[in-house]
Amino acid sequence: MSGNRKLDQAYADLELNPDATMADVKKSYRKLSLKYHPDRNEGSPTAHDDFIRVSNAVQIITRRDQRNKEAFFAKETKEEDDEYEDGAEEAQDPGMPAN
After folding, report:
1. pTM of this prediction?
2. How far apart are CA 75 and CA 71, in angstroms?
3. Greater pLDDT, 80 or 44
4. pLDDT tens digits along 8-61
């Protein structure tokens, strides 16, 4: 369990474990969206609600994945910027006077 009830429920709605890959999420969404699509289940009182539930679940998971990627790259960029700034201070032209 991830500790996030909404995220855990999203994985459960897609019939997946929280450690599933994005490929697993995509595959499960395709399968379940076809299974619950209202056009394929005319007359079913729950098909529309099930379809919406599965669609919302994949949105929750993909937004979480996107935020994790953005946080990772933001941290990586910050570290690279810090290294560049440190190196810029050390790599001063010997013919130029110090600031």
Report:
1. 0.66
2. 6
3. 44
4. 999 999 999 999 999 999 999 999 999 999 999 999 999 999 999 999 999 999
Q: What is the CATH number of the domain that holds 28?
A: 1.10.287.110
In a domain, 95, yes or no: no
Q: Is the dihedral of CA 65, 59, 2, 29 positive or negative?
A: negative
Provide the domain limits for residue 34.
1-66
Quick check: is 87 in a domain? Answer: no
How many CB atoms lie under 10 A from the CB of residue 83?
10
CA dist., res. 10 & res. 57, Å (int): 4
| DSSP result, the chain | --S-HHHHHHHHHTT--TT--HHHHHHHHHHHHHHH-GGGSTT-SSHHHHHHHHHHHHHHHHHHHHHHHHHHHHHHHHHHHHHHHHHHHH---TTSPP-
Establish if 83 belongs to a structural domain.
Answer: no
In a domain, 77, yes or no: no
